[in-house]
Design goal:
Length: about 210
Amino acid sequence: MLYKVFTNYELNKKEITHQRIIEKAAELFNSRGYASTSITDIMKATGLQKGGIYSHFKNKEELELAAFSYLLKKIFESFDTSLFNNKTTAEKLFIWIDYRESLNNTLLKGGCPLFNAGSESYGYNQELNIHVKKSIERWKRSIIEILKEGIAKKDVKPGLDPEEFALHFITVLEGAAFLALVYSDGKYKSKAIERLKQAIKKEVAK
């Protein structure tokens, strides 16, 4: 009985340490960059030695994937779908825009993890790049679903292509974030978002 209690304690302790490494690494990766964050940085943040980190993850790339998955989970779990209740299709898209902006302003240190990981994963960590693509596809499918529901309820202007508009929606938001970053000027993002809202009013809202 005592052995079982001790074993469970050790397992819980290991799980807690494992999760702490992921959370600390995720914050560093998302704010400093994946390539720019070293194992030494993670050691300092967690208070662990290199062997302590590598006893949980076989290499930095595996830790990067775990951290990205943690950040994505945080994004989707923090999105309150009840905000969609009794809303028009256009209003739901406006809610998505506001939520995307909250990733930069309040929710996560460093901003949107999709944007951050996507900006540097190509040519750096191919497995991470694959996960980014899958996450973008998941986001696109959620927008397509909103539009298709709107079409079924006759809440969307006729002739709208859900897949095409969903791609446009994501491209504008992420492209605007990229330009704002490159030029260190938020006006690029604010102007693009305003035009996207106008497109929603013109092409989606009845």
